[in-house]
Fold:
Amino acid sequence: MEPIYGVRPRRGRPRDPEAEPRIRRYAVQLLLERGFDGMTVDDVAEAAGVGKATIYRRWASKELLANDAMADLFDMEIPDADTGSIAGDLLEVYRTALAFANSERGLALIRLAVAEANRDPRSAQIYRDVLDRRIELTEAALDRARARGEQIRGTADSVLMVEWMAGVFVVRALTGRAMPPPEDAERLADVTLRAILDGWSGSWPQTGPERQLADREFGDAPDPS
Structure:
């Protein structure tokens, strides 16, 4: 059979560039509302306005979808920081983490993690993966600090750095006590820095608007000459 020239092949439906973030967003929403068992791919597909096939082309299982959605949420809500010093990095991360923990969504997520991780090994794996991701980012921050010549102690442990802060959130969620407010970021980061950084004096680096304000209010007077 001879080919028919000049006939353009039919194409399928164009790929929706917003589909993946929308799917992740609704996956997290359903996880928070129903827990892992109650979240189904069917319901995520319906909420996101896509077909199940669209989800399964990207994620082979509900577990992978939930894992990816939660990791994406944490990366967005508590982004990595690279301020030029380990003190600045920790302070920025602690501020955003405390702000998230004090939000309605963040508190709901922490409570869900506590309940689900003890009940379902699949859920526990999701939260372990989230913590592992944060541990990797923390180790990278320590490596950057060492490369800059900061005196990071050999005993600095990225696992403990992440888990002690996560432990505060879990204990507060279990006992019903209020989460530490974002204003406590310096005090809590100071605890970590005293454990990992030789010569830490408690003097916080100032950047951006804070630094500019300090320069205006406390900077050297202009040279009259």
In short: Residues 17-77 form a domain with the Arc Repressor Mutant, subunit A fold (CATH 1.10.10.60). Residues 3-10, 208-225 have pLDDT under 50 and may be disordered.
